[in-house]
Write a structure and sequence with these properties.
By secondary structure, the protein is of the alpha+beta class. It contains 4 helices and 12 strands. It starts with a helix and ends with a helix.
């Protein structure tokens, strides 16, 4: 450093350059425009500043972006958790809502039927379904301990399902209406009538067509008022099926095999492929028999 100061020429040049810069700075305030040396100097200083500040700004922006990405990730995780909780709660809500509707329908159904015929309805869950061609059965989770007996009718809120054929202490096997077969002795034919025409209409449900998924109603009188769209119900004759249980609707009428009789095609109300809950029907006579049993 001292050797450098010994060079007087260079020292005087530096002093002069500094005085020149100071004079330029003092003279700028009173002028509207800059001279070309001033412009050159300002541009040079600005360029150096830009070279210094741009990398610094980029680095600062990078760390700011990283911080923002971290915040966005945390927000996305929170939103993902909220969406998952919403989906779970929606499923639970829909299940509870549908279950409440089913139970309300069942309550309204049993109350209405009890007022009509004073039957007792035992609710049961379907635990299995056998599709064996030679032994189609529906198994339910109530049995003799709950008062279930052989030949009790089984229904849903929509209509007839079938008849109890075997009972254990805690389960029962139900033979569905699809086993109706006039050539078989394994299933009882169903005596039926038409809703609102009980005293005028009568027929027998004898066969089920698996291909068409329809029941055949036979022995319909020539002057029977049955018509397309009528609701077919059990008549109560035969002491097997209690009266008033809905079966299905009339789709068509045709001339029967016997002279002066007709037969009807009935579309069942109950879809046996979607059974989850059923009711076992207890009629008052059965209750009375139970009370007389020692």
């Amino acid at each position: 450093m001292f050797n450098f100061l010994k060079n007087k020429r260079l020292f005087m040049l530096m002093i002069g350059f500094l005085i020149f810069i100071v004079m330029i700075g003092l003279s700028i305030g009173g002028r509207q425009s800059l001279t070309w040396p001033e412009k050159f100097l300002k541009d040079a200083v600005g360029g150096i500043q830009q070279m210094i500040y741009r990398p610094a700004g980029a680095i600062a922006g990078f760390f700011q972006d990283m911080n923002n990405l971290s915040s966005i990730y945390e927000e996305n995780e929170q939103l993902r958790m909220l969406a998952s909780a919403y989906a779970r709660d929606k499923v639970e809500y829909n299940f509870t809502k549908n279950k409440n509707i089913e139970l309300q329908e069942a309550l309204d159904f049993t109350s209405h039927q009890k007022e009509m015929y004073d039957y007792t309805y035992m609710i049961a869950q379907v635990i299995s379904v056998s599709n064996d061609a030679n032994n189609r059965t529906i198994n339910i989770n109530v049995g003799s301990k709950q008062g279930v007996q052989k030949d009790m009718a089984v229904v849903t809120v929509d209509g007839l399902v079938g008849l109890v054929k075997a009972v254990t202490p805690f389960t029962a096997s139900v033979t569905p209406y699809t086993e109706l077969n006039s050539l078989s002795t394994a299933f009882n034919a169903i005596s039926a009538t038409v809703l609102d025409k009980e005293t005028e209409s009568f027929g027998i449900l004898t066969d089920y067509d698996a291909e068409l998924e329809r029941i055949t109603m036979t022995k319909i009188g020539e002057n029977d008022p049955i018509a397309d769209g009528d609701t077919v119900i059990t008549s109560g004759f035969g002491n097997i099926y209690p009266r008033g249980l809905q079966i299905g609707t009339v789709e068509s009428l045709n001339v029967g095999d016997a002279v002066l009789t007709y037969q009807a095609t009935i579309k069942p109300f109950v879809d046996l492929n979607q059974l989850t809950e059923v009711f076992v029907v207890k009629i008052p006579q059965i209750n009375e028999d139970e009370e007389l049993t020692p």
